[in-house]
Every structure is written in structure tokens, then in C-alpha cells.
Amino acid sequence: MSDGRRPAPARGRPRDAARDVAILEATLLVLTEVGYDQLTIDAVAARAGVGKPTVYRRYPGKPALVAAAVEHRAPGTPPATPPGDLRAALLVTVQWLADQIAEQEIGLLGALFTGMRSDPGLAAEMRRIRRRDEAAMTEGPFRNALESGERLVPGAAELFAEIAPAVIVHRLVVAGQSCDHAFVDHLVDDILLPLLRRR
Amino acid sequence: MSDGRRPAPARGRPRDAARDVAILEATLLVLTEVGYDQLTIDAVAARAGVGKPTVYRRYPGKPALVAAAVEHRAPGTPPATPPGDLRAALLVTVQWLADQIAEQEIGLLGALFTGMRSDPGLAAEMRRIRRRDEAAMTEGPFRNALESGERLVPGAAELFAEIAPAVIVHRLVVAGQSCDHAFVDHLVDDILLPLLRRR
DNA sequence: CTATTATGTTACGCGCCAGTTTCGTTTCGT
DNA sequence: ACGAAACGAAACTGGCGCGTAACATAATAG
């Protein structure tokens, strides 16, 4: 094939990379603030300090823009956990996870909820990203625990990734309550530790 | 006070009660099909076989209509569970719960997700209804279990209501996978039974 | 310098939906 | 019979967001 299309002669004024990231970050902001349906291109452009055609020059429409923004978003890294103490590691990780979900993920979940009907491709993309993030979020505590001789059930990491985010999201959205310290203690002591420790 | 306002002289043609329920059920249908944001009064009226002013004569707008529809909705009753066998009761109840959520609740959760931003009152109403439904859904298995000598941890019913719907919703929405038989077995055997049985 | 492209501003046409109004008809209470 | 109110159909106004186009200007490659 020998490169069917040249990668654009690039003659003329080049695109501003700073505006690229400004658009993506503004999209994430608006998305978490008002949700997917209420997100308008005008609002994103205004928030990014950019003209509307500048957005449309990069993305054909809302689904592609949101997908690119979610892709661009860097997931937070979980805090380092003290080795040798599974309970302490779980407490720290769960609290951090709850904060992350309450601050950012809720808006993305809303986008997933509503966008999945209109655009299955976007839904698949969102699920891919979320799996990547959850994997990164739940890997920390178990590496330490395993190396320090804790006796865990097989598949403990998968079980944690399956239960902890689910219960946290359920409490935030359905119950409408915040994930305070008492809730984190409850989740760790009454649910996670009894399940994950080898019985 | 002695009745400040008379309850409407009711002179003229009375409202048709059949149209009342037609409107509410059409609202639930459209809501689960297209979600809260995409729901239009015209679509509801058309689905109900009713003129648009007939809807506006009863409700001032979309939030009130949706709230009334969710209030009107009767939650399904969980199937009777075999007494004396906690595992069998959990399997039946969890499978039924998963089907219920997959068929109906997902749409209502989407409405909760998106409507909660625009109308906090609607969100509170939805949460109240959902608590009522979840309580009705999770009461069955434990009454039988307790009467038949199963040794359960204290607060087992609350724990079940906290975990089972959360994991089911998480799988349906985030993972995008159906709750088949294997998943129900996994949820019961690997998560619920180890947690609920007195250790 | 010149051609070429990006950018901002502004404006436009289009479609969709909200909420209201009008009108002719129907159904009730009195 | 008579008046009042609900009903369906249709039309209507208004707002809003989409996606595009028209300009003038800025930045860059050659």
C-alpha cells in the first residue's frame, strides 16, 4: 500500500495544541456538572475560551467529543498503602475510591446511563475506560497484602473490584448519602474483610 | 379553618379516570424506553392515546408527571421462597431481583441520575419510592430463614438489601453484562452466603 | 512575500419541544 | 334543556441548541 494518504501537507497555520486540551478538559467539567444530555457544544466552547467552530473542526459532534474527553482523562492514582496491614490498606483505598467516585465518576456514570441508549459505541467506549480505571484503582492493596503473608481467598482482587465500587455507587446515587468515615468502616469491617480473608 | 376552599363545585364533565391511568402507564413506558431527558409530553400523550392538553390539565410539567408516574407504579412482589433452605431462597430471590432491575428499574435509575440535577424534589421522591420497593423486595427470604433455624448474622436483611441490588446494578450498567444463571450463582455462593451466615 | 490554514465573532436556518390557545364536540350535573 | 367543564385535533409562539457559513485576522510553510 505504501501509505495511501499523506498525513496532511500541513501547509498553513497549525492547530493549537493548547486549545486541544482546553476543549477536552472543559468537556469533562461541563459533563460532570450538567450531565450528558444537558451538555452543549456552546457551553464547552465558552468554558474552554474557544470559538464554537474550533470545536467542530476537531470533532463531528457531541458523542465523539465526549468519547475523546473521557479517553483523555487521566485516572487518579490510589494512595500508597502500608504493607502488612490489610485492614489499614483497605480503609485507605476505599475512602479514596469513594472520594474519587463522588467527585468525578458520578458524572461519567450519568453520561454512560443516558448516552448508552443513543450511542452504543460511546457506551462501549465508556465501559472500556471504566474497566481500565477500576483495575488501576483496585490493584494497590492486594499486591502489598499478598507479599506480606495475608491469607486471601482466590480472586480477592476481582471480588473487591466487583463489590466496593458497586456498594459505593449504590449509596451515593440510590440512597443519596455521602460516604463518610462510618460508612467506610462498615464497608471494610462488615463486608470486605469477612469476604476477602481466607475462611 | 373549616375548609378554606370548597373541593371544586364539580360542575360540568368530570375527568376520565381511565385516562389518568393511561397517562401514568404511558409515562412509565416512555421513561424506561428513552430515559428522562428524551421523554417528551407529546410522546406520552400519543402513547396514552390522549391529547396533549389532557396531560397538561393534570400536571404542570415533566417533573410532576414523572413523579406521579413513579408513585403510581406498583412494585412487583417477590416469589414465595421454599422454607428451610436459605441458599435456594436466595437463588430464587436474587434471580427475580435481577430480572426486575434489568426490565424496569434501569430506566427509573436513569431518570434518577439525570433528573436529580434539575429537580432535587424529584430525586428525593424517587429515592423514597426506591427504598420502599427495595424493602419489599428483600423482606421475603429472611423471614423464612429466621423461622427455620438458619443462623444469620445480625442485620442480615439490611446487608442483603445493601449489597445485592448494588452488585446487580453495577454489573448491568457498568459492565454491561446480563445477570445470567452463572452470575446469580456466583453472587449467592461467593458473596451473599458467606456474609450472611453466622460465622 | 504569498498561499494556506486556524481562529474568533457573528449570524443564520433548521428542527424540536414546551406550553398555550382555539374550536368544535362530548359528557356530565342540575 | 341548559350550562360548565373535559376532550381531541390542530395551530401557534417562543426558546434553545445544532451545525454551517461569512467575514476579518493571525500564524505558519515555502
What would you say this structure looks like, in words?
- 2 copies of one chain form a homodimer.
- Chain A has helices at residues 17-38, 41-48, 52-56, 62-72, 86-118, 120-147, 156-175, 181-196.
- In chain A, helix 1 crosses helix 5, helix 5 packs across helix 8 (181-196) and helix 7 (156-175) packs antiparallel against helix 8.
- Chain A is 72% helix and 0% strand.
- The first copy, chain A, has 199 residues and is mainly α.
- The first copy, chain A, has 8 helices and no strands.
- At the A-B interface, helix 1, helix 5, helix 6, helix 7 and helix 8 of A face helix 1, helix 5, helix 6, helix 8 and helix 9 of B.
* β-sheet strand percentage of chain A: under 5%
Figure out the total of helices of chain A: 8
Question: Which sequence of SSEs, written as H and E, runs from N to C of chain A?
Answer: HHHHHHHH
Multimeric organization? homodimer
Per CATH, the architecture of the largest domain in chain A is Orthogonal Bundle
Helical fraction of chain A equals: over 70%
CATH class term of the largest domain in chain A: Mainly Alpha
Gross geometry of chain A: elongated
Structural class of chain A: mainly alpha
Main sheet record of chain A: none
* CATH-derived topology of the largest domain in chain A: Tetracycline Repressor, domain 2
Mean pLDDT of chain A: 87
In the predicted model, the low-confidence regions of chain A spanning at least 5 consecutive residues are 1-6
Radius of gyration of chain A: 21 Å
Q: For the largest interface in this structure, which chains are involved and how many residues does each contribute?
A: A-B, 35 and 35 residues
Kindly state the number of beta strands of chain A: 0
Q: Count the domains of chain A.
A: 2
Kindly report how far apart the N and C termini of chain A lie.
60 Å
